[in-house]
Amino acid sequence: MSTELVIQLNTLLAAMILLTSFALLVQRRMFAILHIFAWQGFFLGLSTAVIGFATGEHHLYISSLLTLVMKVILLPYILYTLIHKLKIHREIESVMNTPATMLAGIGLVIFSYHLTAPVRQLSTLMTRSTLAVALATVMLGLLMMVTRRHAVSQIIGFLAMENGLFFAATSATYGMPMVVELGVALDLLIAAFIFGIFFFHINTTFDSLDVEQMAKLKEGD
Amino acid sequence: MSPLDIAGFSVLLLLGGALCAMLLSRFERMLVPAAFSLATLASLATATAGFLAVLQGTNHAATVAMGLPGLPFNLRLDPLAGFFLVVIGLLSTFVSLYSIGYLRAYLGKRPVTRLVVCYLLFLAGMSLVVLADDAYFFLLAWELMAASSYFLVMYEDEQAANRRAAFLYLLVAHVGAIAILLAFGIMAGLTTGGASFSNYTFDAMRAGALSPGWAAGAFFLAFFGFAAKAGVIPLHVWLPEAHPVAPSNVSALMSGIMLKTSIYGMMRVAFDLLHGFPWWWGGIVLCFGLVSAVMGVLYALMQHDLKRLLAYHSVENIGIILIGLGLSMIFTSFNFQSLAALALVASLYHTLNHALFKGLLFMGAGAVIHATHEKNMEEMGGLIHLLPWTSALFLVGCISIAGLPPFNGFVSEWLTFQALLLSPALPHPLLKLLVPLAASLLALTGALAAACFVKAFGVTFLGAWRGHRKKEQIGEVAFSMRLGMLLAALSCLALGVLPTLVMGWMDTVPLKLCGARIATSAGRFGWLWLTPYSHERASYSGPVVFFGLIAVVAATYLLLHVRRTAIRRAPLWDCGFERITPRMQYTATAFAMPIRRVFGFFFSIREQLELISPQNHPVMADSLHFRLRVRDRFWNWFYEPLSDIAFWIARRVGRLQQGRIQIYLLYSFVTLIVLLAFLG
Q: B132 and which of A76, A189, B138, B642 could share a cystine (Cβ 3.0–4.6 Å)?
């Protein structure tokens, strides 16, 4: 495979990741969000494998496999069971309307390209052009957390942020050391369990997973 | 053994004692005498160490490899530290003796182990503050002192008022500690550029030179921090709250020595660490001293709680000490070394004297409260017959603090006056105005203090008993309490009668700090005459006054007692009223009334007169109720606005807390974007 083709392929995958990020931002149905999140993980794993193949950094295959197992199968499955058990698969409101969220997202993407412009000029890596997409994914994940009212969609925003970080690591330096990646994967798994427990408690306390309800915890003036 | 070894040994003794006391809390009856005997011994060792250090006039330094790695504790004992060790050691010896008897009243009523442990830690902390030779260890010791004294103030913690007083104390102490920390930060950071940790030692600060602006910043931060602990007006509010609620032996230590550690801190920072300053630093110190002295004594006059009154007198005396210190700084900045030495000696001498007589007075007040179970002096009276020892010793304290010969208060106040009267030599016109004003205010302070102690002693000990307890239940206090007070009283007398010897001993301190000695001029005529500057200007002879007074008293006694008929005991003349009661005596409120009228604008006074008459006719009144409330104006001027502002800011900041997760996330998000945009 020629270098040019790898770059093209990688850019395509980055575009897919960005697309899924936007889809996450505006999708309102719970199960659809989960599917999109799984797709994002799939593209991320694929992109990692492609970079690993092109650069000969073989530990990236393991990362890729780990990503596929964790983010395409395990985490969506955990969240799926959670949603099913807590019966929360109805449509959910977001704080901002869809066009406004999209516009903000577009603004963030442009901002990311602006920020990474100096890096693109200095870097010699073949993945340098995707760094902006990675940063945009992080910011879109954070935007998703800010604009959603439902605890589960906030968690997915958080996981999307983590995807963005992972992507940034591969595109900036061809991946983190193996030990770090294993640690991050484990952390993520444990975080998923903790989220599950928290969901359960929030749900039993407030009879809802709408985080607006938690404003009741505030002390009165 | 070098003096530093002795001092270190005594600190270890105290810390070990505190540890053992914690373990022996089940044997309280045995613990109290054992622990306080240990404290007495350790304090004696401390005093000895300090005495030797001042006598030798050399520095002893040591480094203890404890604390954080790379930051060892540095200790140093120089004459200044030695002098304060003597102050600490001497008074704590007496108070520890006193405590053996004083704490007996608590045994069986409430656990005393906490008091014993904190007492020992408190003594150790004060010694360490003086011995520390780096900022880190100094602050550690400072906090040990503050924390242990907080628990001592809060000893009787079941009353909300005590907890509030202790909290106020802790608050002010910590605001002060932050200021001190910042001052050390400036000195350590700017002398070597903050490149390494080695500049946290006082030696590095001494060697470094600061620009005038930063030096002033460092000095005034330190001054503010130490002033909070010393109770300089307007930071004095914790004193009259905390002293009355603490056990009396603790108030004696806090007022007698703990306040002095902040004087030590000011001297250390001004003369040793920063060395070289413009005259206006001293001018500001002098002004704060004047305000504290006058206001302190005026507020003291309005108090009827014996210990509250003494607490306000501590404010006054700290003011007098600061006057000496400020003058000494002014003289130093104009290079009048020998005058600076005189003012510094006056200030140090008053530090030592105040420790002794205020300790004595607090011990006496404790003895009175212990015997009568009253705190308000309006409920006392006639105690001179019931507590002859205590009243005689309390009288010694009163005469000393009022600044009357032959006791020690006179000597140091007189020295301060001499320093003030020599100031016309100063070349600055503003100072030519300020110094005469200072002298007259100091004279006013002395007169008011004398009036205040006429009131305190007269109402408490003279006249007839007014209290609720039966007179027969009141008896003289335990032997060890009397012994502690007696030793303090004798020291007061010795320091008053033989000032020349004392000044000869402490001559190494001004020599180190101001570069001049005064013993040569002060002691030119031997131990009999004190001539601080030159004998043409002023001289005082303690022994002559003392023996003169003894001769007069002895002659009067002989004249009265040789003829048996000269003294006649008869019933009180009651102006024909026949039913005279103790309530018809002159009260403390009445005594202070003229001064309350004259200086009324300093206080916030509320006076109420209520006539109770069934016939609703003013002439046919049954009874008359008089209510008087005198408050410290600084509460409304200074502290209430401050707390209002704090609450206002807190409410404003509270709006940030929305309780909605999205908003909190938005804060992080916006912060991230802004940082990326401007720093990326």
A: B138
How near does any CA of chain A get to the CA of B165, in Å?
28
- Interhelix angle for B337-372 vs B388-401, to 10°? 150
B598 Cβ contact list (under 8 Å, min separation 6) = none
Smallest Cβ distance to B665: which of A111, A146, A215?
A: A146
Q: How far apart are CA B168 and CA B170, in angstroms?
A: 5
B444: nearest Cα among B256, B536, B316, B552: B316
Residues of chain B with Cβ-Cβ distance to A212 below 8 Å are: 660
Does A55 map to a domain? yes
Distance from the B641 Cα atom to the nearest Cα atom in chain A, whole angstroms: 21
CA B249, CA B363: separation in Å to the nearest integer?
6
Residue linked to tokens 């595109």: A171
Q: Which helix (H) or strand (E) holds B605?
A: strand B603-612
Q: Does A220 touch chain B (CB under 8 A)?
A: no
pLDDT attached to residue B8: 92
B415-466 residue pLDDT tens: 999 888 887 777 888 888 888 889 999 999 999 999 999 999 999 998 888 8
Q: Is the CB of residue B39 less than 8 Å from the CB of residue B92? A: yes
Across the interface, which of B661, B668, B677 has its CB nearest the CB of A211?
B661
Enter the DSSP assignment of B475: -
Both tokens of residue B616?
A: 């609703």
> Cβ–Cβ of B669/A143 closer than 8 Å?
yes
- Mutation target to probe the A interface, by most A beta carbons within 10 A, among B653, B655, B665 is B665
Placement of tokens 């938690």 in the chain:
A214
Structure tokens at B670: 């916006």
Residue A148 domain-assigned (yes or no)? yes
- Please provide the size of chain B in residues: 680
Q: Any chain B CB within 8 A of the CB of A64?
A: no
As to burial, measured by CB atoms within 10 angstroms (0-12 exposed, 13-18 middle, 19+ buried), residue A10 is buried
Q: How far apart are CA B309 and CA B362, in angstroms?
A: 10
The structure's pTM equals: 0.79
Longest alpha-carbon distance in chain A: 66
Instruction: Examine residue A218 and state whether it is found in any structural domain, yes or no.
Output: no
Residue spans of the domains in chain B: they are 278-520
ipTM: 0.82
Q: What three-state secondary structure class fits B305?
A: strand
Domain with A88 in it: 3-213
Torsion, Cα of B606, B607, B609, B610 (10° steps):
20
